Structures are given as structure tokens and as C-alpha cells.
Amino acid sequence: MGRWLPVTISAEPVARAREDFAAGRDVAAGVRPEILASWSRCRDRYDVDPGLRIAPAAPEHAEHCLEQEVVLAELGGLAAIAGREMERSGGIIAVADGSGRVLAAYGDPEAQRRAEASNLAPRATWAEDTTGTNGLGTALETTGPVTVTGAEHWCEGFHDWACTGIAVRDVVTGSPIGMLDVSRWGEPLSDHVTGWLESAAGGVEAELHQRAVADGRRLVAAFAERRTRNPLLGVDVGGRAVIGNDAAEPLLGLPGATPMISPGDRREPEAAELSTVVRWAAGRASGFPGWTGSAVVTTPSGEQPVTLRPLHAQDRLIGFTCEFGVADGEPHTPRDDHVPSPAPDRIIGLRNERLVVLMPAEIRYAEADRNTVWLSTDRGRIQAAMRGLDHVDEVLTPHGFCRVHRRFLVNMRRVAELERGGRGELLLITDPRAPEFIPVARRHVAQVRRILGV
Fold it and tell me: What is the CATH number of the domain that holds 289?
């Protein structure tokens, strides 16, 4: 069977657009925004060979904690059951870990044989940074199910495949734990695949949410046993606050003694670098209840030392107490050895079903509405093609943008005016002619002032 036509997009225009984009030319139309955003990452950040025909092998050893192993086992069971249906429909279903490393594949023997020729098989990696735009890898870069058909694959060797993947994410940290992917050779996938994947992943994440709520209650109970007059926070392993004492409220703007049990209710503390320090501490304290660490973080009142002590429940690390004003234990040493990847000099937007190619200088600020990001530009308000403010932040930060709030990313070169709010907060204005006031979170005020020289 020859090359097939995707359900909604003609294969020939997509193939031409991919060739143009791989050659360094811009693409204005004919490609879905999420695919174009993926192509941009493959070309400009990851330098993936568009002529690749076989997925590379994954590292032999992969560390999975017990909770990850449980999730992967559950996904494996779902995949094995669904594989029986795949045998009748001529497709395969693969399960992979959070790095895109394939663990198992089930389904039609002929489809599996073809898949193995491309190394869509156990011990191969299908992460986007190694294997380009594909259902597994591109689902790691965004939220929800991702469908990639035919020439939408960045790598030429996979153009005969249709695939839809979805990642199951840790509800506390947001990190991918495992993945499911349905693939079919030579024919499009059924419309029911996306719904089944959403239901399967949603069921597993619902179980993770229940466990996170239970851990939140355990964290609050363990927090109550700590006594200090200093500002004290109880944070989960993602660095978000679950509870704080009264002394923490004026320092960090958190409601003292008001527990935030559900992961969706928890707040990011007003302390720059704290989430990074917590991730470091989680790596050091796992399995060592007596470990203690310290760091220096920036709070609204200036730099403060903080001591982190692990909280364990049922032999699992569930969070930390963060005591401010005290430095005890192993010190955290910030590392500056990360070399950022080259960033593209453009970002793709979507307006009225048309793709808009934007230069960073045209964008005044970006605002997040859940996973949707809106760009305020010289050409009006445009939706970003990529989802999630973190992804937009990663692309635009090298071009003079600064994260000033959990919902706002601002082009600091476009800041025209500053204004103090009624309670002392700082507001940014990038267009004095428009009624816009961009709030600066207190933990970012010092950084914004340094950048602007005020």
C-alpha cells in the first residue's frame, strides 16, 4: 500500500511544507499549529535529522521509583488488553516510560513487524529530541493526546505511519511518568482512538490525584509536629506550598495555617529559586529521612537562608518543611553549567485558522489561560500555537522576555511605564495607549527592577 492521505490535511501540501521548513524556509499555511511548533523544536532546538529512518536505542539503564513502576505496570496492563483489539484492526499499541523509552508493544503481528523495522519496539527511544515529531515524543512536550499522521512526522522514515500518543503525568510535579501510543501503518487511525487514550490516561491520573490528596493530609499532619517561631512552610515535592505557619504569611504572602490539600489548590511560594532547590533536595533526601539541606532564596523582603527537612510517609518522600532565616545541613550550590539550546527567532501563532509567524520583538507580553497562551502583539491578540506558558517561556527568554508572574511573560524591552498598585505591588505597562496592567509577583520584583535599572 502506498502513502495514505491524513484525515483532515492533504499529504502532498504537508510534505512540501515539511521539505521547505527542513530547508530553513518559513511555512505560512497547510500545517497544524502543534505540528509546526514541533517541527520548530526539531529543527531549531534539537537538530534532529529529517532523513532519520530508524529510532535510536535508549540507554540500557533507566531509574524508575516504585510509584512510577506501579503506573507503568498499570499502563502495560491496559496496553495488553487493548492489543487484542489492535490485532483485529491492524494496529499496535506501545507503552513507554516518561522519557519516551518503549517498554512493550502489542497488536497485529504484521504491524509489529513493520514497527520493528523502524525500531518502534522495546528499548528504543521515541523522545522528540532524538526521533522528531511523533505521537510518543510530541506528547511529552505538551498536554493531552497528540496525533501525527504521514508527512507530519519530522523524520522521513516514519511517513507511512499514523500515531496518537498521550502522556500520564505526575499530578504534583507535572513530570511525565508513562505513555501510551496507538500506531497504524498505511491507514489512518479510528476516530475512537483519541477518546480511548484520554479515558485510559485520565483514569490513571485520577488515581494519582487521590494519592496526592492523601499525601497532602499526611504532609499537614507531619507539619504540625514542627515547632518554630521562624517562617515555616510545608511544600510538596514539586515545591508548591501545602501549608504555612502564621510567620510565613507576611513574608511569603501565603495563608497561615490554611492547608491546601488538593494539588490544584496549592500555591507556588513567593520565593524565587525555591522550586529548584526543592527538586535538588528531593534527589538528596529520597530514602534518607534524617537528611537536612539549606539554600539562599530571594523573598519579597530580600535574600533569605532556608533549611529544608524531608517529610516521609509510608517510607516515601512526600515533601519538605522549609524554615526561613536558618541555614543548616548540606548547602545547595547553584550550578551555572547549563548551556541553553539555540532558540528560534520566531514563534508561531494562530488566528482565525491562519498561522501567524511572529518575531519576538513584535510580542509585548504573553498571558496564560490554563494551558492556552495568548500573545499581545503589534498585530493584535494572537493565540500561541504551542501550549503552556513554560514552553513559550523557554522559547522567548533568550530574546529579552522575563517571567514576572505565574500567568505573565513580558518583553522587558517593551516596558514603557511602571506603576505601584494599591498594596505596594508593581504593575508593568507595555502600551500606554491600552488599558493594560501586568502584575509582577512579589518574588520577581527585585529581578524586574534590576533588569529595568529602577
Answer: 3.30.450.20
pLDDT at 346: 78
Angle (nearest 5°) at CA 96 between 204 and 77: 50
Name the residue range of residue 369's domain. Answer: 347-452
What are the DSSP calls for 287-313, one per residue?
T-TT--EEEEEEETTEEEEEEEEEEEE
Domain termination site, one of 211, 245, 271: 211
List, in sequence order, the alpha helices (H) in 224-328.
Answer: 248-252, 274-285
Strand 161-169 vs strand 176-185: parallel, antiparallel, or unpaired?
A: antiparallel
Query: Are 391 and 441 members of one domain?
Result: yes
C-alpha cell read off for 35:
505540528
pLDDT per 10-residue tile (average), the chain, 454 residues: 36 88 77 87 89 89 78 94 89 95 95 94 94 95 91 95 96 92 92 93 95 95 92 94 89 72 88 88 85 91 92 89 94 64 68 81 91 90 86 87 91 89 78 84 83 82
Look at the chain and report how many structural domains it folds into.
3
- Contacts with 333 (C-beta within 8 Å, 6 or more apart), sequence order: none
Amino acid at 301: S
Neighbouring-strand partners of residue 410: 365, 402
The answer to whether residue 338 sits within a structural domain is no
Non-local (6+) Cβ contacts of 205 within 8 A are: 168, 169, 171
Triad 64, 131, 56: Cα angle to 5°: 70
Rg (CA), the chain: 24
- Joined together, the cell numbers standing for residue 321 give 518543611
> What's at 401, amino acid-wise?
F
Task: Report the CATH number that the domain containing residue 29 is assigned in CATH.
Answer: 3.30.450.40
The answer to whether residue 340 sits within a structural domain is no
Q: Alpha-carbon distance 416 to 418, whole Å?
A: 7
Per the CB < 8 A criterion, the answer to whether 9 and 151 are in contact is no
284 and 388 part of one domain: no
Could you tell me if 160 and 294 lie in one domain? no
Q: Phi first, then psi: what are they for 19, rounded to 5°? A: -60, -40
**How far apart, in Å, do the first and last CA atoms of the chain sit?**
66
| Domain contains 3 | no
Distance CA 165, CA 198 (A): 10
Q: Kind of pairing, strands 363-369 and 408-411? A: antiparallel
Residue 220 lies in a domain: no
